[in-house]
């Protein structure tokens, strides 16, 4: 008897999680599926100034540029429109529940009235359950038409490849988009406030614009105990250029295309948000600081008025996100000062 597709989608994350308890990913799971070219840092503005021969690629350096193939693509979504905002949501292949929650909350393309929003999820290939998950992803893609996937392994150290896949898609298939938001699946986003407060669709689109939670004067962690470990062979400098924290940031459409172009000439690092900052540095573009408190890198206590006047809060699971969204969007008790109801 064939199991219904809906039931398979609900059970799959549980089965995958249980199976992962009995498996230890080999070091090779950190690597993209493709072969690995070699490159050096001598072309990077702000590098260490040396111009020796290109060293072999470090295992933490994803191969790039490289002709990764789209396994799932939506090349025609911008054929008849130029959206005001393209929403690129980072997700894992197995996270069906997370994608469901985003589609029904802040990722709903109708969430911002009067503004064209286009949503796409970014994913790679699961390093262990690639084949069975691929069938599920293909069913989900056929139903929602909102998943992009390339043939690199979906690991933490390949997050940079995910973002570049999204920027590649925008550059090739939606070059007239006014703005691009890259967001993780485990955030709360207030797109309506972002659009009305920062992007202001009644005005001409900004150019060379990027904002979010800005980090300045930070550097790579050299301790292998951290998942954010970056060895000198990958990035030799002691500090990163200013960059926006990875959970969510905003780029103007023109800058999204320029960052993708700059990435073709720079050696990648395994810290996605820092690498985007390196691209900005190479382009001579500065990040724009957002008003204090709009982008929250840590989870904060829910407050009706506060949440109606911020853009992002990090660390929300699918169930929490659905519950929070219902509390924010319920229609009772409208207020002049708080657009959402009391909860």
TrEMBL record:
Keywords: Glycoprotein, Glycosyltransferase, Golgi apparatus, Lipid metabolism, Membrane, Signal, Signal-anchor, Transferase, Transmembrane, Transmembrane helix
Primary site of residence: Golgi
Beta-1,3-galactosyltransferase 2 N-terminal domain location: 65-86
EC numbers: 2.4.1.-
Associated pathway: Protein modification; protein glycosylation
Signal peptide (from-to): 1-19
GO molecular function: N-acetyl-beta-D-glucosaminide beta-(1,3)-galactosyltransferase activity
GO cellular component: Golgi membrane
Record-level GO BP terms: lipid metabolic process; protein O-linked glycosylation
Compartment(s) of residence: Golgi apparatus membrane
Pfam families the UniProt entry points to: B3GALT2_N (PF19341), Galactosyl_T (PF01762)
Topology with respect to the bilayer: Single-pass type II membrane protein
Top-rank EC class of the record's enzyme: transferase
Family in the record: Belongs to the glycosyltransferase 31 family.
Listed PANTHER family: BETA-1,3-N-ACETYLGLUCOSAMINYLTRANSFERASE, HEXOSYLTRANSFERASE
Name of the protein: Hexosyltransferase
